Amino acid sequence: MAYKIIASQCTQCGSCEFACPSDAISFKGEGYVVDSKKCTECKGEFDTQQCASVCPMPKTCVPA
One GO molecular function term (predicted)? Predict the structure, then answer.
C-alpha cells in the first residue's frame, strides 16, 4: 500500500516532496502526487511516514 495526497486539502507548500526518502512525491499538473510504485510508506527507514509528519494540514497525506 502507498500513501496519497488529498488534493483538496493540500496547500502545495512542498514540504512532503522534500521529506520523502524514496522520492515518490512530485508536483504534477496542479498539485503534488505520490507515485505508488515508489512509495515505501517509509517502512524500514522511519517510525512514521515523513510526508504525513511534515504536512501542515492534518490528514492530507493518508494511506491509499
Answer: metal ion binding
Contacts 24+ apart (CB under 8 A), 41-49: 41/1, 41/2, 41/3, 45/21, 46/21, 49/3
pLDDT tens for the 64 residues of the chain, in order: 899 999 999 999 999 999 999 999 999 999 999 999 999 999 999 999 999 999 999 999 999 9
Topology of 3-63 in CATH? Alpha-Beta Plaits (3.30.70)
Indicate yes or no: pTM above 0.85. yes
